[in-house]
Amino acid sequence: MSPGQLYNVFSRSPIKPLQEHIAKAYECTHLLFDFFAAVFEHRWNEAEAIREQIVTREHEADAIKHDLRGYLHKGLFLPVERDDLLQILSVQDRIANTAKDIAGIIIGRKMHIPEAITASYLDLLKGSVKTVGLAQKAIDELDELLETGFRGNEINIAENMIADIGAAEHETDESQIRVRAELFRIETTLPPIDVMFLYEIITLTSKIADRAEQVGNRLHVLLAR
In this structure, are residues 194 and 179 in contact, taking their beta carbons and an 8 Å threshold? Predict the structure, then answer.
């Protein structure tokens, strides 16, 4: 009997809520597409409604997080390191928080995104959300890994997924460089305070991908044990 099968005999698995949590984080980031579509056209009521959806998903993720943290701190047998799961959960939580922060800053300042950087910014956003989606797929493999006792072909599948996450995050690094360069070329035509917040939005959007890569890195540590 594998460690995962033995664990399921005695207790409920913490993997399913971890998967539910990253699904909520992914929803938060994916909603940014609709959010920015409204922002670009200055449809502020619609943008605010979408921001509220992001906040709702983030609160739902928080509820899962608090429940899972309490559960993992109980004295129970786990087939994996408790700290590894808590680290993954913490990084996933930052993904949802970052999406909420982006929407909050934009709405709070009714920020105008210059047309000159719109296309490049959307490339960055797409890359970041893609990276979160890849991280979600990797976390979704965890229950299969437990069932096989972290052996066999499932390990190879998971390691390939982790490599894909890293490659996607690298692409977002390149996208961030491009959009920053485009903003730099026009920043003298914009109010300085707007420029400052635009750079902040670019940085936060890139951090979504960074944190998705951290999920992959923490998963790699878990597999290595």
Answer: no
- Average pLDDT, rounded, for the chain: 89
- The Cα 215–Cα 222 span in angstroms is 11
Averaged pLDDT for residues 16-32? 96
Kindly report the CATH number assigned to the domain that includes residue 51: 1.20.58.220
CA 113 to chain centroid, in Å, comes to: 23
Instruction: Give 142 or 9, the one with higher predicted confidence.
Output: 142
Give the chain's domain count: 1
Long-range Cβ contact pairs of 67-75 (< 8 A, separation 24 or more): 67/17, 68/14, 68/17, 68/18, 68/21, 71/14, 71/17, 72/14
Contact between 206 and 172 (Cβ < 8 Å): yes
Per the structure, the complete domain to which residue 116 belongs is given by 3-224
pLDDT tens-digit series, residues 31-83: 999 999 999 999 999 999 999 999 999 999 999 999 998 877 665 555 667 88
Residue 146's nearest CA partner among 86, 77, 216 is: 77
The answer to whether the CB of 28 falls within 8 A of the CB of 68 is: no
pTM: 0.90
**What is the rounded distance in angstroms from the CA atom of residue 183 to the CA atom of residue 120?**
10
